[in-house]
């Protein structure tokens, strides 16, 4: 499997794609493979998504644009071919409501999968993954209560309507909120949930960034150990690019952290930790358990805000609001970056987003920045 993963790490089909996207590779975890083999009653050689890549673009229409570019790129080389596609965007998968475009590539007899999602589709996917961590059941694999799965199927349908520019019906809204109330009680009563004291460990993020800076050679390959008992990862390390060394490391980690004890060993490749945090956010701990499931209005605000600004941008806003840097009261960029917001991995790009939206302004007198008083109501909505 490691050789399969490393064969995919050299994929450069999207190198010159001009629009924004997030991308991260991943190797399907051994427990996940075993569950899928049992569920589908197939042989290992029949699985086409052991190695793969997750790509997140802004809108559903951008999925089509990126796919067209991919088709053109494949046609210009002789390494990969497109074996088939599976488009779950219009109707959603029957079992869970999952939406994305899957493209199965073939290279030297090996199948590799691309999952291409819009941000709203990805927001839904991360929501069901986050809930799986809290609940203790793999909901995307149809484990757990049918009511909880139905909540996510209904939510997926509503998100589809909104992304298509249509208002969800009153009946759909009521259905989501009705199911949410029922499902929260089911999840709270589950004897498998053990992670209500989980948290986002920012110190680990800083450690990963430091490791990354010592190995700045493009794509990094990481081994992550996720603890389903605690709802957060407990170890993350850079893996050698040498396949043989990687095999030994992967086997050693699986020996130290057995699945029988509630661990999953994950292999992920990405150009930077900040990207992995976007593409696999549920592995970075759970921020809040106040509402296990979101009501529809909260969900809409949630994915709207996630589309508009990233986590780093919200942290910058929160810091500046907390310290009352409004209007004429400014703070220097160096102090904001290196002192108050030193844990924000994407500081420069996040601040640029805030400036482009007019939420943060720069003083022509001293070059410091402050929150835009005229945007106070909008800033408070983000927070």
SSE layout and pairing:
Layout: H1 2-8, E1 22-27, H2 30-40, E2 51-57, H3 60-75, E3 81-87, E4 101-107, E5 110-118, H4 119-135, H5 146-163, H6 170-188, H7 202-213, E6 220-227, E7 232-238, H8 243-256, E8 263-270, H9 273-279, H10 296-308, H11 311-322, H12 333-340, H13 347-356, E9 360-362, E10 369-371, H14 376-382
Parallel strand pairs: 2-5
Antiparallel strand pairs: 1-2, 1-8, 3-4, 4-5, 6-7, 6-8, 9-10
Helix pairs in contact: 4-5, 4-10, 5-6, 11-13
What does this structure look like?
Helix content is 45%, strand content 17%. The chain is an alpha+beta fold and 383 residues long. Among the domains are: 202-284, no CATH class; 309-382, Winged helix-like DNA-binding domain superfamily/Winged helix DNA-binding domain (Arc Repressor Mutant, subunit A, Orthogonal Bundle). An 8-stranded mixed β-sheet has the order 3-4-5-2-1-8-6-7, sandwiched between helices. A two-stranded antiparallel sheet has the order 9-10. The longest helix has 19 residues, at 170-188. The two termini are 43 Å apart.
């Amino acid at each position: 499997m490691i050789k399969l993963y490393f064969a995919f790490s050299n994929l450069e089909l999207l190198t010159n794609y001009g629009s924004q996207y997030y991308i991260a590779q991943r190797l399907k975890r051994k427990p996940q493979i075993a569950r899928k083999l049992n569920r589908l009653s197939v042989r290992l050689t029949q699985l086409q998504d052991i190695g793969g890549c997750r790509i997140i673009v802004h809108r559903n229409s951008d999925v089509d644009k990126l796919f067209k570019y991919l088709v053109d790129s494949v046609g210009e080389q002789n390494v990969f071919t497109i074996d088939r596609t599976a488009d779950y965007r219009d109707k959603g998968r029957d079992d869970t409501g999952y939406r994305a475009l899957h493209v199965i590539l073939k290279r030297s007899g090996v199948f590799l999968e691309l999952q291409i999602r819009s941000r709203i589709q990805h927001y839904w996917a991360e929501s069901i993954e986050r809930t799986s961590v809290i609940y203790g059941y793999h909901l995307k694999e149809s484990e757990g209560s049918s009511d909880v799965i139905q909540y996510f199927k209904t939510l997926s349908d509503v998100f589809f309507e909104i992304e298509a520019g249509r208002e969800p019906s009153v009946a759909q809204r009521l259905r989501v909120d009705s199911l949410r109330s029922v499902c929260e009680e089911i999840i709270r009563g589950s004897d498998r949930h053990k992670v209500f004291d989980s948290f986002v460990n920012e110190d680990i993020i800083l450690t990963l960034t430091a490791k990354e800076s010592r190995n700045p050679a493009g794509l990094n390959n990481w081994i992550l150990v996720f603890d389903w008992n605690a709802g957060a990862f407990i170890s993350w390390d850079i893996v050698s690019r040498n396949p043989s060394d990687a095999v030994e490391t992967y086997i050693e980690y699986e020996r130290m952290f057995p699945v029988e004890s509630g661990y999953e060993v994950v292999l992920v490749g990405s150009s930077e930790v900040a990207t992995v945090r976007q593409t696999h956010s549920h592995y970075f701990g759970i921020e809040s358990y106040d509402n296990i499931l979101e009501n529809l209005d909260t969900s809409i605000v949630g994915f709207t805000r996630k589309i508009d600004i990233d986590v780093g941008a919200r942290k910058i806003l929160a810091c500046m609001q907390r310290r009352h840097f409004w209007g004429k009261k400014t703070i220097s960029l160096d102090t904001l970056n290196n002192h108050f917001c030193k844990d924000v991995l994407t500081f420069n790009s996040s601040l640029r987003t805030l400036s482009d939206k007019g939420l943060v302004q720069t003083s022509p007198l001293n070059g410091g920045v402050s929150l835009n008083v005229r945007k106070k109501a909008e800033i408070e909505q983000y927070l």
